[in-house]
Amino acid sequence: MVLPEQTTVLVVGAGPTGVSAALSLLEHGVKDIVIVDAAERTPDTSRAMAVHAATLEALESIGCADKMVELGLKASQLDVWDRKQHIFSLEVTKSLEAYTKYPFLLEIPQNKTEEVLEERLESLGLYVHRPLKAVGMKGDVDELGNTEVSFESGEVVKAQYVIGADGARSVIRQVNGISFGDPDGLPVDDSIAQIVLADVVFSDDRESLPKQNAQACVHDNAFSLIIPLPKASLDDSQDQIYRIAFNIPGAKGAPPSRPDLPYLQAHFDAVQRFELTSDPAQNPKPLRMTRVLWSSRFRTHAAIAEK
Questions:
Q1: Looking at the domain 6-76+107-176, which fold is it?
Q2: pLDDT tens for residues 95-152?
Q3: pTM of the prediction?
Q4: What is the spatial distance between Cα 192 and Cα 302, in angstroms, rounded to a whole number?
Q5: Could you tell me which residues are beta bridge partners of residue 244?
Q6: Where do runs of H (alpha helix) occur along 1-98?
Q7: Is residue 131 reached through a cis peptide bond, with omega within 30 degrees of 0 on the bond before it?
């Protein structure tokens, strides 16, 4: 595709935010749109995989909610345990069903969300230009007050409006001097400041693993989550894949950027229910991780772009 030299709206970033913005503009009659992304293709990993009712309602307005619900799992509650027993369940569906047609938490990998959004975009005749990394921006470059965005490739696009949807390290935000921070500046509890995430397969799909709802284990200063993902959503196997997450207190040091299976297993065993660990001293029927499809870490923080 040839990149247009001029447009009414330029959307920089084709993740869920950028594509949703473009779809919303199309739904409201704005047709002259260019959307670009720095990546050659969308990542095939799960990343953000929980979609709430209000988000589904917004996605319904751009024609994407039904397909996402079809591809995802509906969690109606969060089951909370300590290491030995069930403590309580936080019910979702009954609390929400009087207010929304989506009274559940939708569990769907981000790669599937992006697939649905981009398919919808293409069905309306708009395609993402890739790979185009924005490196600069200048305002009022002509008598019409257009803004000029330049790319690493040397290409330039003029636009009346620019939407910066290029993530937490947004080039568009930075070149415009727009700050991005926590307006409250409240400190984060050290015990939850670092979180490890991974998509894993276990040695068996035993009954004590969640089949649809999310499951949490909390004790002392530790917490962990297990959330089932739709089968065949991340690879072609029929293995049941689970998202796991657990905290790493700051006193234990920073977790690796891509935690491997031994690291994940050791820390999972230290924080999860005894009957889900791989330690035969704790669990007479050990449950082991056999495959890691993706893993990452993040630091808990809040930030908002300056007005």
A1: FAD/NAD(P)-binding domain (3.50.50)
A2: 999 999 999 999 999 999 999 999 999 999 999 999 999 999 999 999 989 999 999 9
A3: 0.92
A4: 13
A5: 198, 226
A6: 16-27, 53-60, 65-71, 93-96
A7: yes
